[in-house]
Every structure is written in structure tokens, then in C-alpha cells.
Amino acid sequence: MPAPKKVRGKVLEIDAPSATERDYIFSALSDPGVYVPFGCKSVPARALFDQDMLEIWRGDAKRREPVRYHLLRRVVEQRPVGFFVDFGWDSPIDSTREIDLAFPDPAERDVASYLDATVIVAQYLFNNKLAKRLRWRVDAAKDGAPRRSERQGARLLFRQEERHPVTGEWVRKYIYEFALADFERLGKMAGVDPRLEYAQQRKTVWDTYRGAKR
């Protein structure tokens, strides 16, 4: 299978990590603020990481998941600022992929980067035929289901209670899905080609989401 084609946004780009950038990802996974949201109980072992595997806990159940690592770089400086993983929802080859995104350094977690990633993660996975549906878990807000994902074209599938991988406490998660059909519908309603690299689109993500009414 050919290597996925890099996708560039307004401020970030997604690419397959180099060996040095894989070291950056592994180092970032030593932070509980990164590995716990991914569903890990402890720092991933290097041997498992080198095999592209993660031990993910759902309550008392542990699964070793084959994952793919994708790097987020700043376009101008060409330096890594984050990464995301994807793995099969029901099986390793499932075209429905669960995704988890991390910006390890809090200073890099600005709105522009988050919104850029929102667009180019979907473009990268869909344009490279790495997925047909994307799903992710969102922590419950005190006032109910968070609406940000819906405003960005995703659909709330369901909510569930699951145990925290470290403390064992019950927490509420909302599961969102963004399918290839949603990706194409959003582009059509906003009047943009969703497959055109975001860096080349005249409209910004703000224009797209304001113009695409559900």
C-alpha cells in the first residue's frame, strides 16, 4: 500500500511521521495528559509502540489495538506540534475508525490549530482511503452533550458510561461520527470541494461551518 499523501491546512499539515518524529510521538505518550485520554492506563511500552500497538482499557477490559500514527506539523516552522491515532472500531481492518488527537504542549492548543486539524484530519483519512467513517469520544459537559462536534457536521450516535482507565470511576462519554457522506454533504452545502486540500481553499473553516446549515 503506498504511503498516505500529506495534507496541508492553513497553519498545520498532516503527514506520516519520520523516525525522529516517531520519537517525538513516543516521548509525548509518556505524559498522562496524553496517554490517559487515549484510554491507556500507563505509559505505553516502547516495544508495543514500535509494533504500532496500544493497550487500551475500557473498564476492566484490556485490548491491544493496532493503531496508525499521524503527525501534525506547523506549516511555517515545519516542526511537530501534535499527532493523532486511528484504529478500527470493531476490528483492525474496520473502515470505521476511532480517532484520538493530541497537542502535547498546552501552548500549541490554540483555536486556529484545533479548527485546522478538524478539517485536515478528515481530508487526510478520507482522501487517502484510510477510512469511511470517523468516530471519537467526548467527555460529558455539565450541562449535557457538547455541541461543538455537531456544529462541525458530525452526528451524536449515543452516550455511554465507561470506567476511567486509571481511577476506575464511571464517566460519561458522548460518541460522535463523521462519515464520508457527511464530509461530502458539508462541502456541497458550503459550496466548496471537500477533497481540495484545505490550504488551497479560499474559504476558511469559519466560512464553511457558517454556510453549511444542517
Task: Describe the structure in your own words.
The protein is of the alpha+beta class. The protein has seven helices and ten strands. The strands form two sheets. An eight-stranded mixed β-sheet has the order 1-2-5-6-7-8-10-9, sandwiched between helices. Strands 3-4 form a two-stranded antiparallel ribbon. Helix 4 (111-127) links the parallel strand 7 (96-102) and strand 8. Helix 6 crosses helix 7.
Topology:
Elements: E1 7-8, E2 12-15, H1 19-28, H2 32-35, H3 46-50, E3 53-58, E4 61-66, E5 68-74, E6 80-88, E7 96-102, H4 111-127, E8 133-139, H5 148-151, E9 155-163, E10 170-179, H6 180-190, H7 205-211
Helix pairs in contact: 6-7
Keywords:
214 residues, alpha+beta, Aminopeptidase, 8-stranded mixed beta sheet, two-stranded antiparallel sheet, 7 helices, 27% helix, 31% strand, globular
Kindly state the percentage of residues in helix.
25-40%
Can you list the strand order of the major beta sheet? 1-2-5-6-7-8-10-9
Shape: globular
Which secondary-structure class do the elements indicate? alpha+beta
Please provide the ordered H/E string of secondary-structure elements. Answer: EEHHHEEEEEHEHEEHH
Number of helices: 7
Number of domains: 1
Mean pLDDT: 89
